[in-house]
Amino acid sequence: MKKRYAVIGLGRFGFHLTKSLYEKGHEVLAIDMSKDVVYKLKDFSTQAVVANATDRETLEALNVQDVDVAIVGLGSPLDHSILVTLHLREMGIKEIIVKAITEEHGKILQMLGASEVIYPEKDMALKLATSLSTPNVMDHLPLMPGFSIVELAIPNSFVGKTIKDLQLRNNYGVQIIAIKELIPERITSMPTPDFVMKDSDTLVIMGSDESLGEISEIT
């Protein structure tokens, strides 16, 4: 469903987010103080504006209050993102996603009413650490502390066996929620117990981080 977004702060995070949302067909209002950055996004946003987002009257003049989701990607100084978040909450925007620099910064943003606080640098570091320490894991999505969903390349010992043969749920406490097949190219959600693994398949598994770590070490 097409949504209206406001992205405030067009550093690397905000820049690529704006471009991606626009390319997916959404309306995106992009706001930053830098003329150069705004100019680069003029063809990759619905409206790109040079403006001081810490001024509430400016935000209201740009009709930011009419968007479905506001994303604040401002970095330093930290008080800028804090002030913008306060303005957005007072303007009645229901979904406000804010980039935090530190844990303390994130706590303040949550207290001010941010719907979600994200840590892009921290999340990227954790993802890289996971890929380096568990090379079989192709992607990693944390669900809550201690639990995740991962994409796992099929270990050689799984090839030719069925889900029933492997007994992953009984032996490791993990659940296969989908299998990405390369030949033929398709995704099988909640595969049946008689599904036979191929070496070109990718498992999408949900479970505790400890159990997923054990699975990722299988060869």
TrEMBL record:
Matches recorded under Pfam families: TrkA_C, TrkA_N
InterPro entries attached to this UniProt entry: NAD(P)-bd_dom_sf (IPR036291), RCK_C (IPR006037), RCK_C_sf (IPR036721), RCK_N (IPR003148), Trk_Ktr_HKT_K-transport (IPR050721)
GO biological process: potassium ion transport
Domain called RCK N-terminal: residue spans: 2-119
Molecular-function GO terms, alphabetical: monoatomic cation transmembrane transporter activity
Annotated RCK C-terminal domain residues: 136-219
PROSITE patterns linked to this entry: RCK_C, RCK_N
Protein's UniProt name: KtrAB potassium uptake system, peripheral membrane component KtrA
Annotated source species: hydrothermal vent metagenome
